[in-house]
Amino acid sequence: MGSLTGLLFAGGLGFMLLAVASGLDFGAPPMLIGTEIQAHAPQQTGAANIVTSVVLGYRAIDTLGELSILFASAVSAGLVLGRRHTTAGTQTKGGFILQSGGSLLFPLMMTIGFYIIFHGHLTPGGGFQGGVILAAAFFLPLLARPGARLHHKSLSLIEGFAGASFILIGLFAMLEGKAFLQPMLIQDTLGQLVSAGTLPLLYLAVGLKVGAELASLLSRLIQTEAPQ
Amino acid sequence: MISAVTPELILHITAIGLIAIGLAGVVLSSHLFRMVLALVIAEAGANLMLVLAGYRWDAVAPILTSRAEPAAMVDPVPQALVLTAIVIGVGIQALAVSILIRIRQRYATLDRKEAAERMDAEIAATLGAPRDISQEAPLGERPLPPLPADQINMRGDSP
Amino acid sequence: MSTNLVLIIALPLLGAFLLPVLMRSSMAIALWSGPAILIYGCWIIADLWLSGFAQPLSVAIGGFAPPLGINLYVDSLALLFAFAVQLLGLVFWPFTLDQESARRQSLMLLLVAASTGLALSGDLFNLYVFYELAAVATFGLASASGSGAAYVATLRYLILSGIGSVLTLFGIALIYSQTGTLNLAHLAQLAPEQLHNSLGLTAFLAILIGIGVKAELFPVNTWVPEIYATASTRLSAFLAGLLSKLALLIILRLLLLIFHQPEAAQVILILGILGVISGELAAWRAREMKRMLAFSSIGQLGMIFIAMALPDGKGMLAVLALSLHHLIIKSGLFMLAEDWGGALERLRGSAKASPLGAVLFVLFSLSLVGMPPLPGFWAKFVLITELAAQVEPLYLLGLAVFLLATVVEASYLFRVAATLYGSPAQDTLSEEIPKTKGLSLLTASLFGAGVIAVALLIAPVGDGLQAIAAQALDVDLYITTVSPAVSGGSQ
Questions:
Q1: Which of A7, A52, C167, C231 lies 20 to 30 A from C314 at CA?
Q2: Residue B15 is part of a domain; what is its CATH number?
Q3: What is the 3-state secondary structure (H, E, C) of chain C?
Q4: Does some domain include residue B62?
Q5: What is the Cα–Cα distance from A21 to C174, expressed in whole angstroms?
């Protein structure tokens, strides 16, 4: 009975929302601020990727908030799972193919991760996407060798300083008499690797922070799950 | 308003359908992990809805490839918003999973009802008060004896 | 000068990122950096206030003019709440020292930064981001007590809050696809033509339910008794006292600026009435302190929602007065509950053991019920006069429920007071009677002193609140402050 009411509720809700949403003019959005940003972004931020201009320029404080959320959930997960880890030396190791495959892929994934981070202002991608790949690079050997550990101390160092440098770059702009997180050092080299001023630096901070955070989260989860 | 099955209708149905399926899953499932998964589905629907808000048929990705007059581009703002929303969702899911691990270690169950009952019992025990809703005993007038210290301290990480 | 304001969000975040690293190298610096940041935040705001703050400000972050970039909107209302965030963050600072203090303190700093952002931000999606940040920090702090019950309660809260964030996101998506902007001032200009329809109403309801999770709105407040019973008392006090008010502030701003439709107000009124009824009755049935306070806070917030639903912003002053009053009283009561948590029956005869605590409890209760010289009376009086002036039956129903709720409130609070002053049962030893002591009693006394000070200075405080309310009600002022290029305003 309860499940039937639940289904009816969800179905009715969906139908209602659909009826409302069908009034929207799909495919031709108003784009009030969208067109403005498209027109001004190349001059104001110097990044060829306009999404990057929005993420790190126009809505930079959203990105800062989002980094903080990731940080908050990593800290909370640390608080929940605790520091004590089971000694995971007793576990079965992955086979030869898994292990060597993991070590082979590690440098490749690091390269791709950093490539995506450094080209975030030119091509699709950026700090978040690259950071996730970095985390995966660290996580892969861990899957192949369940006994291995990540160095949590250095991870939390990277985490802290990468996040801090994002804010410090923003505060540096204030020292120069500009607004908090205002893009600076914009060169007139749209579309080249060295362009968009401080934006790639911000993306580097984002990428390192995301990578370190996800890696420590995943390794914490895998270590806690180990049978006792 | 809607005369035929058009692509926009299908996309909107997908987005809202995902939200409805997710919410129904949260309401209906009896397993805590499934509730978290259902939430993930609903979040995907909301994100899809958000990204649809800036879509244009006749446009390209908002990346400049030359200094010439650019072609029509889709709205970059929703894409940035969705990026933010996805990362927020990932953070919350990771936290939810780690809490689930702990609940399973403490209560040896992830059943929604059982976990809720165990929680109520534990709250009542730590607060030294009879439970608010109880079939057996009337609303508590009896003072309970103080609990032994080892029961109050529920922290007890496994030795 | 005003650009410094962004520091009260940026510095706590910086501190939170660096605390775990700092704590490893130098304990002393790390321990004091959190409170130092909060004190500096208080100083920035006080400095701005004292240097002749009259007109609202808009601070563009990143130097991008508002409709494109994100701005902080700073009027006296926002500034008041931002100051309250810093101050209460300091008062409820987790001073306890153990292995986890670095994590707990950095979560607290994140919570403070997010709450400040909620008070100041002028962008819809940015508000959502800060709201989620506050939520995640709350999850971490709530589960920190480490009991199984705390974990289950936190997970249930997380899931409810997740439903809320899905709905909020959906509402934001609807608004963005209709208008193409997210800036509140810009939306306020566009709203009369584009959002005063069924689509706008749906978006508002979605956001209302979403944000309402934190504001303890009626159908989405099941987490309240569970979290307040399992989490630390200081966190409960911060959540019930401040975070719920900030969520309320967002709903209020949205209602004033964007969705001033009669239907929206009616929904809020109905949910508020239901909240008052359910909260006060549950509080009356509760047999132990923390749950009683949790349910009573649901009821109190329901009253504020009733005030918010008054047409044409007539309830603004009442909303403000009731919110601030509840903020002070509930924080004080929760601080008393830190030692007096547990079954109410256990408290029999506590007044002898801790006279100051009992006096404070009676003071807070009297003000909460609305005894004439105390500030609670004036807050409730403003609401009653406004409600009685309405002719619609629904508002009169609200008035009736409000008066009844006051009676119920009086009955359960004075029952506790009677227990406190009763003679202890014969078989209990005097050591078993819980005493209020130490830091929590000191903090509670601070709030008690605050109540008495407000009661003595009721005239200037009332005038100040009136000015703040008038400024917050001025939609045209909001729009012209944020985007001075556009003249004329919304209508």
A1: C167
A2: 1.10.287.3510
A3: CHHHHHHHHHHHHHHHHHHHHHHHHCHHHHHHHHHHHHHHHHHHHHHHHHCCCCCCEEEEHHHCCCCCCCEEEECHHHHHHHHHHHHHHHHCCCCCCCCCHHHHHHHHHHHHHHHHHHHHECEHHHHHHHHHHHHHHHHHHHHCCCCHHHHHHHHHHHHHHHHHHHHHHHHHHHHHHHHCCCEHHHHHHHHHHHCCCHHHHHHHHHHHHHHHCCCCCHHHCCHHHHHHHHCCHHHHHHHHHHHHHHHHHHHHHHHHHCCCCHHHHHHHHHHHHHHHHHHHHHHHHCCEHHHHHHHHHHHHHHHHHHHHCCHHHCCHHHHHHHHHHHHHHHHHHHHHHHHHCCEHHHHCCHHHHCHHHHHHHHHHHHHHHCCCCCHHHHHHHHHHHHHHCCCCHHHHHHHHHHHHHHHHHHHHHHHHHHHHHCCCCCCCCHHHCCCCCHHHHHHHHHHHHHHHHHHHCHHHHHHHHHHHHHHHHCHHHHHHHHCCCCCCCCC
A4: no
A5: 7
- Are B73 and A22 within 8 A, CB to CB? no
Q: Which residue among B2, B64, B80 sits closest to A22, beta carbon to beta carbon?
A: B2
Question: Chain A residue closest to C111 (CA)?
Answer: A72
Domain chopping of chain C, boundaries: 284-456
Residue B61, CA atoms < 13 Å, CB-side half-sphere: 12
pLDDT at B135 over 80: no
CA distance to partner chain C, nearest, from residue B106 (Å): 6
Element (H, E) at A206: helix A199-225
Q: In this predicted model, which residue has the larger pLDDT, C345 or A118?
A: A118
Quote the CA–CA distance of C219 and C213 in Å, as a whole number: 9
B147 residue type, one letter: L
For the CA atoms of chain C, what is the radius of gyration?
A: 22
Q: Which residues of B touch A190 (CB under 8 A)?
A: 64, 67
Residue B95 is assigned to a structural domain of this protein:
yes
Are C297 and C267 a contacting pair, CB within 8 Å? no
Measure in Å the smallest separation between the Cα of B62 and chain C Cα atoms. 16
Q: Report the candidate in B140, B130, B124, B145 with the shortest Cα–Cα distance to residue C428.
A: B145
Average pLDDT over residues B84-94: 91
Distances (CA, A) of A130 to A116, A209, C362, C448: 5, 11, 58, 53
Residue found by looking up tokens 């359908």 in the block: B17
C387-444 per-position pLDDT tens digit = 888 888 888 888 888 889 988 988 888 888 888 887 766 655 555 667 666 778 888 8
Residues of B in contact with A70 (CB under 8 A): 87, 90-91
Which of B6, B23, B64, B79 to substitute to test the interface with A, most A CBs within 10 Å? Answer: B64
Question: Cα(C75)–Cα(C57) distance, rounded to whole angstroms?
Answer: 6
Measured between alpha carbons, how far apart are the two ends of chain B, in Å?
A: 65
Which range marks the domain in which residue B92 is found? Answer: 7-56+75-131
Does B68 map to a domain? no
Q: Are A224 and B1 within 8 A, CB to CB?
A: no
Using a CB-CB cut-off of 8 Å, the residues of chain C touching B46 are 166-167, 169-170, 173
Residue showing tokens 């439970």? B131
What does the pLDDT average to over C168-195?
A: 86
Q: What is the tens place of the pLDDT at every residue in C30-60? A: 778 888 888 998 988 888 888 877 788 888 8
Q: Could you tell me if residue B39 is inside a domain? A: yes
The number of domains in chain B is 1
